[in-house]
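Checklist before submission:
- one chain only
- standard amino acids only
- sequence pasted in full

Submission:
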Amino acid sequence: SSGTVPTQQVEDFRLAAYESDLRRLIGTYREAGVTPVLVIHRNRFTEMESPEAKMWLRAWERFYPQYTGDAIVKFDSVAALRVAAVGADSAVTVVDPLSGLRSIGSAAFSDYSHLSSAGAAVVGGLAARALGSTLCGKVNH
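Returned file contents:
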């Protein structure tokens, strides 16, 4: 252990770097003639007080020991808002799988943030519909 106390804060410079990298990626794809579609990352946390949620938060903290679980989840939420904003002002289709994933609950995730097969099927279906709409110029319902 380094003795460093994990931060509970979302660091603005990290969010700014994330947004800058995302904008650069969109530009790079467009220069190459690719139509980008963004899919917002989501995680399993609808609450963080249950024993199961606390267990998954501790597991996620192991990969980012400089942050508390609260900070990690908060960053993920704020980053999702940034992806939506970048998509909107860059005229890029954005897929937000939140409601679809929430509809199947914890079965959507195999751990703290990685999708299970069921979760991947939900996100894949949403992304496929968005791609179809984007590529064909149609709105699919």
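Reviewer check: The helical segments are 12-31, 51-61, 69-89, 98-104, 117-136.
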